[in-house]
Amino acid sequence: MRLLSVFLFLASAVSAQAACTIDDVSSAGVTGFQEAVISVDDLDAANETWQTVGGYDVVCDGPVDDGLDAFWGLPEGTPMHQVVLRKGNGNRGLVRLVKIYGVEQVQIRSSGMPWDHGGYFDLYVYVDDVDTVFHQLRDRGWQGYNDPVHYTLQAFDIDESIMRGPNGEALCLMQRNAPPYDKAAAGSESGMGWPFNVAMIVADYDANAHFFGEVLGWNVHLGGRSTTPEPGFNPTGIPANLASTSPRRFAAYAPHETDRNGSLQILQAEGLTGRDFSDRAEPPNLGIVTMRVPVDDIEALAADVASKGYPIHEPVTALTLPPYGPVKMMALKAPNGARVELFTQQ
């Protein structure tokens, strides 16, 4: 059965390389990040996992276009291969796997724990059956910070596990029992839904809140402080006695006033001090390397950011970015080192 799955996903990749198109994407139709970009060591294995376990389809499969090497600060002509995947027919929540050849790489969050800050920690996806997906990923070498755990947070009743993959990337598998939501729209009726949130562990909460709230002008959709009820077992693997007494401070930011899909969430485990991965959160390193966000006018945004005195990590650059076509894109760095790439289709 495993060999058949591998054959099927390779066959689908061949047809996707020729098509490589989706419906028009505009900032009006996407409320936060459009896609997550994951730098991987074994492209075939990562591709198979997202297709077989997640139920994703290949949109693009081929070499990366010229110009990305310079935008990513890589040597000219660095060979790269990418696979773009999506769940269902939606035009948001895509996953882009990139294999970079011939350069030295380390994991961005090598052996990282949920209290170590810097870069992106985990992508959130809805699942209908967390236990099934948990074991499917573990069969492929992924490991959990804890076995699936049941908890409540504000109005939410959840069973959840956070799994770490072979590149240091992590997935939050969220089985949301209540309140009800549209599982078909989320793509979670089978496998894994499309990513709707990404968490960033931060050491300086206020600086990161200022970046998203003031520099970018995004809205807070879910925020506060929480502890885990006794006995304190939790998906992050924080020791139970600390989880029940030490608060986690959090806020999820998105551009839209009412729709939080595609949010970027800052998270701080108060009272816990970990390692700092912020200097590693750059290509070509392995893991969740960047989130890409569509905007109406990239030039206007760049001018606005500069007027606020915030540094632009990579200036506005013209690129071709399948499946969106020609784009103009710039990169900012959140205070925790996470790279945010914002683009406008041309």
β-strand amount: 25-35%
Rg is: 19 Å
Q: What pattern of helices and strands is seen along the backbone?
A: HEHEHEEEHEEEEHEHEHEEEHEEE
Number of helices: 8
> Which shape, going by the Cα principal axes?
globular
In this structure, how is the largest beta sheet organized?
A: 9 strands, mixed
What's the N-to-C terminus distance? 43 Å
Fraction of residues in H or I helices: 10-25%
In round numbers, the mean pLDDT is 92
Given helix and strand content, the structural type is: alpha+beta
Low-confidence stretches: 1-17
Task: Find the count of extended strands (DSSP E, 2+ residues).
Answer: 17
Secondary structure layout plus pairing:
Layout: H1 2-19, E1 35-39, H2 43-52, E2 57-63, H3 68-71, E3 80-86, E4 94-100, E5 122-126, H4 130-139, E6 143-144, E7 149-153, E8 156-164, E9 170-178, H5 183-186, E10 197-201, H6 205-215, E11 219-226, H7 240-243, E12 248-254, E13 263-269, E14 287-294, H8 298-307, E15 314-321, E16 325-333, E17 339-345
Parallel strand pairs: 1-4, 5-9, 10-13, 14-17
Antiparallel strand pairs: 1-14, 2-3, 3-4, 5-10, 6-8, 7-8, 8-9, 11-12, 12-13, 15-16, 16-17
Helix pairs in contact: 1-2
Structure description:
- With 346 residues, the protein is an alpha+beta fold.
- Helices cover 21% and strands 33% of the residues.
- The protein contains 8 helices and 17 strands.
- It has helices spanning 2-19, 43-52, 68-71, 130-139, 183-186, 205-215, 240-243, 298-307; strands at 35-39, 57-63, 80-86, 94-100, 122-126, 143-144, 149-153, 156-164, 170-178, 197-201, 219-226, 248-254, 263-269, 287-294, 314-321, 325-333, 339-345.
- Strands 5, 6, 7, 8, 9, 10, 11, 12 and 13 form a 9-stranded mixed β-sheet that branches.
- Strand 16 and strand 17 (339-345) form a beta hairpin.
- Helix 1 (2-19) packs across helix 2 (43-52).
- It is globular.
